[in-house]
Design goal:
This protein is mostly helical. The protein has one domain (4-97). The chain contains five helices and two strands; from the N terminus they run E-E-H-H-H-H-H. Strands 1-2 form a two-stranded antiparallel sheet. A hairpin with a 2-residue loop joins strand 1 and strand 2 (10-13). Helix 2 runs antiparallel to helix 3 (56-63) and helix 3 (56-63) packs across helix 4 (69-78).
Length: 99
């Protein structure tokens, strides 16, 4: 895996992470390692967004649904997550609309 990924013109480092789960919990996350990894990333992304620690678009990138506002917002809505953040405004999304 490359140590850096490019997102919207910005390079960010990628850190692999391993967690230990019981077989029972792992089975709830998915039938295979790829599905378990995807579901764990989604859960982490949603929780960090709910806590206001990451933006909507960062949540979308982490969850693997896309780094545009609309894909991330649709993912947020599918999981019944309230719009979060200062004044409920995604600062990264504003940049898409300003010259």
């Amino acid at each position: 895996m490359d140590a850096c990924e490019r997102h919207a013109g910005v390079y960010s480092s990628v850190m692999p992470m391993t967690i230990e789960l019981s077989d029972e919990v792992a089975a709830e996350l998915g039938a295979n390692p790829a599905e378990r990894s995807r579901r764990a990333k989604e859960a982490i992304a949603l929780e960090l967004y709910r806590e206001g620690r990451i933006s909507l678009r960062t949540m979308g990138r982490l969850a693997g649904v896309g780094d545009d506002h609309w894909s991330a917002d649709a993912f947020r809505a599918r999981h019944a997550m309230a719009v979060n953040g200062p004044g409920a405004v995604d600062e990264e999304a504003i940049d898409d609309f300003l010259p």
